[in-house]
TrEMBL record:
Pfam families per the UniProt record, alphabetical: ALAD (PF00490)
EC number(s) stated in the UniProt entry for this protein: 4.2.1.24
GO molecular function: porphobilinogen synthase activity; zinc ion binding
One Gene Ontology term from the biological process aspect of the record: protoporphyrinogen IX biosynthetic process
UniProt-recorded name of the protein: Delta-aminolevulinic acid dehydratase
InterPro entries the record matches: ALAD, ALAD_AS, Aldolase_TIM
Gene Ontology CC annotation, any one: cytosol
Gene3D superfamilies tied to this protein: Aldolase class I
Summary of subunit composition and partner proteins: Homooctamer.
Annotated binding of Mg(2+), by residue: E237
Active site: K197 (schiff-base intermediate with substrate), K252 (schiff-base intermediate with substrate)
Family: Belongs to the ALAD family.
Length: 329
């Protein structure tokens, strides 16, 4: 009896050798925590995202303190405006006294060492729930939208944001924003582009959280976000954003698109991030609430899967939980 001579199980037999051959590790340095900031007082739960709440600026400061204490390096801000203030052109998106610029100023003055990131797109601010400006037929106008995104970006940069993250998928917006930043002297404002962002059904709970779901109605984003069938196209999008001046790129959603993360990382070797989106979070929460999955084990496995696929970091609604779980172990 000569087989098996090679026994991969040998290395898995004990904890010490499992540890020795472990290829990827997750630390709190890998986490970005997305948060929703609203105009109301206090906190309001997001029903389809248990554990996620819309926060007033006062409450946001409490959460920021926790994030810092847990070692989470960056908070990513999404604005939830007063519904009555929405317009077809979404102009409150570039109001210097809008919810996001106020939140940026509050965070940076209280916690200068905390990384602050913000989202650029018009969907929370428009009456139609699209990320850009539309023509009479409802088509999203590219170049006109870029002008609006540049305004929104400059307002966030002036408020002191560290990282801009345009999530709209207009062509050429990274170049236009980068040029405007340079011209205005914001040479150190980083850009993480939503470079490969798919037209995904997994964004549903997020649209409820920012209050754009009702505005968008039966509308979709197929004319600007990418077709889930494609991955060569993702490389083209990433290539353009890097050439236009992105410092970091993102693939979104996360777990269903690990192949895209791997291709992007292998092709470009730039800082690459995965966004574990609202629907991915909601699935885990729902299964855990039913006792069907072990929440911590599954969430941590998903984080490691992002690292294994080549992601340098993950945007996740689990960020504070993950930081706590890492501390426990
Ligand atoms: C808006 C935006 C979306 C997300 C981030 N920025 C939704 C969308 O494109 O419709 C999704 C985040 C999530 O689902 O967690 N431009």
């Amino acid at each position: 009896m000569s087989y098996p001579l090679i026994r991969p199980r040998r290395m898995r037999r004990d904890e010490f050798s499992r540890r020795l051959m472990r290829e990827n590790v997750l630390t709190t340095n890998d986490l970005i925590y997305p948060v929703f900031v609203h105009e109301e007082k206090g906190r309001a739960p997001v029903p389809s995202m248990p554990g996620v709440e819309r926060l007033s600026i006062d409450e946001l400061l409490r959460v920021a303190e926790q994030a810092l204490e847990l070692g989470v390096p960056v908070l990513d801000l999404f604005g939830v405006p007063d519904p009555a203030a929405k317009t077809a052109d979404g102009r409150i998106a570039w109001d210097p006294d809008g919810i996001v610029p106020r939140a940026i100023r509050a965070l940076k003055s209280r916690f200068p060492e905390l990384g602050v990131m913000s989202d650029q797109a018009l969907d929370p601010y428009t009456t139609h729930g699209q990320d850009g400006l539309i023509d009479e037929s409802g088509y999203i106008l590219n170049d006109e939208t870029i002008e609006a995104l540049v305004r929104q970006s400059l307002v966030h940069a002036e408020a002191g944001v560290d990282i801009l993250s345009p999530s709209d998928m207009m062509d050429g917006r990274i170049g236009a924003i980068r040029e405007a930043l340079e011209n205005a002297g914001f040479i150190n404002t980083r850009i993480m582009s939503y470079a490969a962002k798919y037209a995904s059904a997994f964004y549903g709970p997020f649209r409820s959280a920012v209050g754009s779901a009702g505005n968008l109605g039966k509308g979709n984003k197929f004319t600007y976000q990418m077709d889930p069938a494609n991955s060569d196209e993702a490389l083209r999008e990433v290539e353009l954003d890097i050439a236009e001046g992105a410092d970091m790129v993102m693939v979104k959603p996360g777990l269903p698109y690990l192949d895209v993360i791997r291709r992007v990382k292998d092709a470009f070797g730039v800082p690459t991030f995965a966004y574990q989106v609202s629907g991915e979070y909601a699935m885990l929460k729902a299964a855990a609430a039913n006792g069907w999955l072990d929440e911590k084990a599954c969430a941590m496995e998903a984080m490691l899967a992002f690292k294994r696929a080549g992601a340098d970091g993950v945007l996740t609604y689990y960020a504070l939980d993950v930081a706590r779980w890492l501390r426990e172990d």
